[in-house]
Amino acid sequence: MNTALAILADTYTPLLAILCGFVLKPLFTLKRLFSFIVAFSYVILFAFIEIYFGWWLAMDANFSSHTAIVMVMIFALLQTQLNIGILALASVFAYGYLMTVLDYHSWFDILTTMLVCLPCWLFFAYLNKNK
Q: Is 25 a residue whose pLDDT tops 90?
């Protein structure tokens, strides 16, 4: 059973990326591509900074890089296709539950990682406001 759950957890991010691609493809502009590059760069840079400083480790926790990557896609969906974005956000909590069942992360790991990703949402919101 854990093997099936692990496979499900491993396929979540690629499936969300495919959904994101289909939903956002007709809306894609150079500006939106740039926003994705900046948002993904932000979360990857933050992950490296976290490794260096070890803030989560100091709290006996882990930064969830998978959650960070997923949140970039969720924030883009929320800013462009609200209904799909809300469903995708709900799926993140199901994914979070799955990660806790598999002992990959705790809710603290997941929720604090989501908080760190909030600037990505603000960036997408700023781009949509100025289009």
A: no
Quote the CA–CA distance of 11 and 62 in Å, as a whole number: 21
Structure tokens at 27: 């809306």
Which residues, 6+ apart, have CB-to-CB distance to 12 below 8 Å? 70, 91, 95, 98
What is this structure's pTM?
0.89
Number of H helices, E strands in the chain: 7, 0
> Helix 107-116 to helix 118-129 angle, to the nearest 10 degrees?
30
Single-letter code of the amino acid located at 15: L
**pLDDT tens per residue across span 51-100:** 999 999 999 999 999 999 999 999 999 988 889 999 999 999 999 999 99
CA 29 remoteness from chain centre: 21
C-beta separation of 3 from 98 below 8 A: no
The residues spanned by each domain of the chain are 2-129
